[in-house]
Specification:
By secondary structure, this protein is of the alpha/beta class. Helix content is about 30%, strand content about 15%. Strand 1, helix 1 and strand 2 form a beta-alpha-beta unit. Helix 1 runs parallel beside helix 2 and helix 1 runs parallel beside helix 5. The longest helix is centred in the first third of the chain and has 14 residues.
């Protein structure tokens, strides 16, 4: 029998060196809505105490399950995620995010708004990098908060009924 108090998913949203506080606040709000953990990898391009983070997260920010790490190696050492838990999102990813099979305890990893994920983050994980299809040649990328929301709902479609 399943635990009635168990979370339907235990995804973790990982933002590696995010730069725009409003995006992080909006992502925090999405994490609260789905009861997901938000993991921030420093350095951040802002202070978490900035009004814009809290304004985007509204009065939900105090409910964000938040963890912070000083850098990517520190995160890997502390969390020791399995390879099959890690999903990186970049426009150059080989496979579509629609085609991945996400475990209930996946880490969904996103890079900074202006430059994406650093090569040292994806090194050795190139086969785990996914892209989000875009039909227009006029768009380079999606807004980070929008991309995270699309990814968590796509990844959770089997669990969030």
């Amino acid at each position: 029998m399943s635990d009635p108090g168990a979370r339907p998913v235990d995804f973790k949203v990982v933002l590696v060196t995010p730069e725009i506080p409003g995006n992080t606040g909006t992502i925090g709000r999405t994490c609260v809505a789905l009861d997901l953990e938000l993991i921030l990898i420093h350095p951040l391009g802002f202070e978490l105490s900035e009004k814009s983070v809290r304004r985007a997260g509204l009065d939900y920010w105090n409910h964000v399950r938040l963890a912070e790490y000083p850098d990517w190696p520190g995160f890997l050492a502390a969390r020791t995620p399995r390879r099959d838990q890690l999903f990186f999102f970049e426009d150059w990813g080989r496979d579509s995010f629609y085609d991945a099979t996400y475990p209930r305890d996946a880490y969904l990893v996103f890079g900074r708004e202006t430059k994406g994920l650093q090569p040292e983050v994806t090194a050795g994980y190139e086969d785990r990098v996914l892209h989000m299809p875009m039909a227009s040649p006029h768009i380079r990328s999606l807004n980070l908060a929008n991309a995270v929301t699309a990814a968590v709902y796509q990844a959770g479609r089997a669990f969030l009924q």
